Amino acid sequence: MPSYDDIPTKTLIDIRRAWIAEAAPVLLMKRLDKLASKIWTTALEYAHNLVETERAELEHAWLEAVGLADQLAAELDTARATVDRQAAQLAADAETIGQLREALRTQEQALAAALYRANRTETALLALQARVEQIANLLTDKIAQQDDKTQADERNHQDRKIGRFNNRRYGNPP
């Protein structure tokens, strides 16, 4: 029996062409159609199941994403409200600080004016104390002079009294 390798290439090509040109039997074609139909149906069911699974997964992921977006929106609203409150508090604090600074400036000016008046008052007081000492010294001198005069007048008066007494006693009439 000749081997396959012994058959000339041209003859093999002719045999192949003859097979290809020959129509497949109807029974085989029906069975292949049924098989192809089952394979196609199975493929469609598999694809449909795959699409449904992916759709369910996507829907679940979408719902989860929507939930997270809602949660983030709520957190963002809360954060914005907090920022707004803090900004309002900051503005109020800044205004209070401005008022306190103005009050401090006013108090510093009042203190400076009070220190100026106290300094002038102290200077005037020192001048008055010096004047009082001067007047006290003058009065002390005047009193001393007056005392001296009074003592001198007293002595003169005593001397006159004694002189009168002596005159009366010893006979000199006044």
Automatic annotation (TrEMBL):
Sequence segments annotated as region (Disordered): 146-174
Regions of compositional bias (Basic and acidic residues) in chain numbering: 146-162
Domain of life: Bacteria
Protein name from the UniProt record: KfrA N-terminal DNA-binding domain-containing protein
Species name: Candidatus Methylocalor cossyra
